[in-house]
Amino acid sequence: MTTREQLIEEIKEAPDAILSEVAHFLHYLRDRAETETFDGLALSESALAEDWLSAEEEEAWKAL
To answer: Per-domain residue ranges for the chain?
Structure first.
């Protein structure tokens, strides 16, 4: 059974009060997914800065 099918079965048995909360949460998740973008470069910059700013790295790129 897929996740979608499992959710549909749960929805069929859930009380209306819970369904209202689930609907709000689903809308929140969908909105968040649309507005967020993954910026791997920005996330890795601080981790890679140690290597980029080392004396060895400077020496290696000096001739360019």
So the answer is: 3-61
> How many whole angstroms separate alpha carbon 32 and alpha carbon 30?
5
- pLDDT (tens digit, 9 = 90+) per residue, 15-59? 998 999 999 999 999 888 877 777 777 777 777 777 777 888 888
Encoded tokens for 8: 């549909």
Whole-number pLDDT of residue 14: 95
Strand, coil or helix: 64: coil
Q: 19 near 12, Cβ under 8 Å?
A: no
Single out the residue of 30, 36, 12, 11 nearest to residue 22, CA to CA: 11
Are 19 and 11 within 8 A, CB to CB?
yes
